[in-house]
## 1
Amino acid sequence: MIYNQWYPVLDSGELKKGKLLKIKRFNENMALWRNDENAICCISDKCCHRGASLSCGRITGGNLECPFHGFVFDKTGNVKVIPANGKNRPVPESMKVQAWQTFEGNGFIWVWWGVEEKATPEPYFFDDLKDFSYSWLKDHWNVHYSRAIENQLDVVHLPFIHRTTIGRGNKTLVHGPVVIRKDELLSFYVRNVADDGNTIPLRQDEITDYQKLPHLSFRYPNIWQNYISEKIRAFAAFVPVDEENTIIYIRYYQDLIRIPGLRWLFNYIGKISSIIILRQDKRIVITQLPKKSSVRMDERLIMGDKPIIEYRKHRQELIEMNGET
């Protein structure tokens, strides 16, 4: 996982007030809760005293009480009270666990994975989605999150994996695609056509008016948007669990229907179609080896793979600049 980045780790609705939640992200077991101010608290799920799971404890006064010996942890991971030593005895500074900086916004709980002093005030999100309604789902994939991301950057696979859904029409020939990266935003423009046996795929620099083509955008480290139309979008967050597991949050965004009942029905239909398409991808992607991608690996890429090539290239640049865990 690229260091010094904001990552969405949960849908906001999954963390209820008054409830402790255990999750595994970045190969770390984490305990999360909301304090009395409804702020998100995220600390290591392993007590520094005897190694018990803190998420089995309880919330008291906005802090977390270990279920084993009653040590009380605040959102910074510091122990505030050791009951066996007495309430008024000072707590040694060494009595603490890892804590992570959090942010709640755009319907997600985000964790800053990196050096706290380098954290930006808030994560990047696609601003054009903020007035849309959406339905959502999550799915567990037994792959490194880089493989899951690359599936959504792959413009070559549509007529094969999705031949019965979004890949209908047997458009196997790929022009370009045109790939543009500006800072951490990677955008690509796609034109796939049926192969008539005579057409030669155009290179990126041969494609004019590419801005009029269907396009998708990926923002490092792990969020993606498909501009289906002006009023309909698909969104994904690829949440790293560990080196071999990823949770994908898919959202179907729309701004076509605003009447409450009809809006719910339209969003629900979008959710069902998203599940079908996602599972078509999953069936194949989980078979890829190795489970994690990198710049140099035993693959023979083609022109149509340019979004994947650019993703790997800049991901490596970010790793060299910030580190990887």
Note: The domain at 5-118 is CATH 2.102.10.10 (Rieske Iron-sulfur Protein).
## 2
Amino acid sequence: MRIDSDSIKTGINRMFRGAAAAAVTVAILAVQPACTYAGVTYMPYVTAEMNTADYWLSLQGGNVDGVLADAAAIKRINADNCANAATNMNDLINYDKTIDTDNLNENLLKSSMEELKAYQSKGYYDQYGNNLTDELIESIAANTQSRMGTMSGAPMYGIVVKRTLQTAFPTTTIITDEQGDLNFDYNTLSAVRVNEPLIIKSVSADGLWYYTLSVNCYGWVKASDVAICASKVEWENAWNIPDNRVLVVTGNKIHLSESNTNPATSNLMLTMGTVLEMAPEGSYGARVTNRATIGNYVVYIPVRRSDGSYTKELALVSANADVNEGYLPLTTRNIITVAFNMLGETYGWGGMLSSNDCSGYVGDIYRCFGLVLPRNTTWQAASNAFGFDVTDCSDEQKAAILNNMPIGSVLFFKGHEMMYLGTVGGRYYVISAVSSIGYYAGPGVMRTRSVMINTLDTERANRTTWLRNIYKLQIPYMM
């Protein structure tokens, strides 16, 4: 059964127009200590049972298994996001720009120096606890200059062979605002999954980094984590997979089995939203990685040869792993189930620590349905998805609209986004990957750095509530 999205939008629009006159009771923040159950600590007003998808699904009226957006609708939304300049998405498959190395070098050198100098002026540190020096800044910026020489031509085409990061600069130097804090690196921009496509525009001076475009970001990637395809056709065939051969990772992380016979795929980590191609029946023998295929999917895994070129190997993925044949149907049940697969996971700025920040978390959830969202909060909020700008609304008006927003809606305030879960006892609950909050039992900041559930009367470091700061409400699967 497919949900009538037009009726949902009509109802919410009606509530939005009438929100100014609505009489809504908003829960008043009262200091309550964190709750502890069986040794596990939760945020104030969060109970142990709330930390299950079934709890929130049980509160839903209507059909939680109805399809909210089918494959055709998701395809249209992806195309719209890609065409919207404000989302900074990249149409990789139709990319036809030539590379002007001289111009690229000039721009990369200038932008790198400016950004690094800005971090220096703020007193930021490297991984050794030292303030950023002029010598360090100059050496990092110099590495942005292409070793490919002056050229104008087509880019190279790469496939990611292990989950890796796109970074602002071609360096392993960590840039942090707290001395000794190596778990937050401003050099990190975004994560890219195994088998994701990249367009490669340049190679760093030391040859260890590629300057790349992914579908929703751009930045430097370690060359050792990417295989170069011999042609655009080979590249496209690696990731533009027929629908009947798609296998999607829907759990937080899975690992391929350890193998001495296939070291390139041994213990390989596959994260949520990874899309692999299932090998056609009859295209492989009785054994894969020296094992019988019983109880497993047979998939292709991209591999980087010793010369950096692309090939692929067969590997086995357990049928009991958190994977799905084809993209998941976009239903309420599936959205919340997938979201809770990462509950309690580490917060990872820009995708570092093999984890997610707030926008990466939401993006990975919706990638399991084939919906590709912009990279960061600003770009996601700028999409044409159905939603409301509530910048000028009071807390009561925001609450009136939230009362009619579906579970799985995305809420934004500057620098953070969260997924809406619903209301319990007059309080509004969300789940998100959170870096820090205003400490709930006293002054100061609490560095939570976890995927967690909390209420919208949680405070920020400036002691204003999350609800007060929300400026945008959005349903990313509706236009």
Note: The first helix runs from residue 5 to 18.
